[in-house]
What does this fold into?
Amino acid sequence: MLRERIAAVARPRHTVHAHCDIPCGIYDPHGAEIGARTVARMVELINQNLGDDPNQRNQFVRCVAVKEQHAELVKHEVRVIWGDYFKPEHVEKYPQLHDLVWRIMKQAGKCRQTVDAQAAADLQALVKEFADIFWETKGGRPQA
Amino acid sequence: MPSTRPRVSRPGDRDDLGRARFRAGVRFGIGIAAVGVALAPPVARLVASWGLRSAVEGTSMRPTLEPGDWLLVDSRGFAERRPRVADLVAVPDPTEPSRWLVKRVVDVDADGRLELRGDNPAESTDSRTFGTVDAAAVIGRPWARYWPPHRIGRVR
It folds into this structure.
């Protein structure tokens, strides 16, 4: 009781940020974009119908494995930026953000389940939309 | 009040007693004043810092400051002198002035602008990104940590 009252009085009134953001590379949607591109490329390779000899089958399985991994990578990268970087004022400015992240999660799942080129293209488009919002909050995408 | 009651005394001793008590009173007064003078600057500093008590967020000032540290930031810390190299400063973020940063001064140029750096430069956004900061923009000087209990003390 007394402790709580003391704590209430002593609690800081301000925050001083010993902060770090994009220039040291902690937040960057590039990883998610690369992941989505990789998924699309794997779908393309898988649909080329490689053939039946062991080497071709090996290649096929590898493509599927990479597609699985990169779809999960997209989800991971997007979740980190969504959860750690975006602040309430960003969400206020981009009210579609939460829904967009949810759709990316769903779409990445769909890309794991199928070898649908359209699904992969849609995932890329959604991730690009997410990256665009991120860079808008940063005052513009850096020139490569 | 016993002191106002007429006391039993021999002739002649009354003045001496009065003088001794007067001297004791003066000494006491000087003592109180000295303690006051000695305590005035820290008390004034505390008062000037209380309104700017601040919580640290982020890791760019490790190992000096840890996220979650509670600091006293002296709003008059640079009233008498300009920030110098190695001082800690609280400044508005030049890229987002509504939030405050805590960084260290690593250089002061001829125009009095400050080059700021985090003590943990690998995880710091500072003057390398946003350039130098006007010394006049400094909000205050972080000088003490009052929480957590095992790390209470001065920060520099």
In short: Chain A has one domain: 28-135.
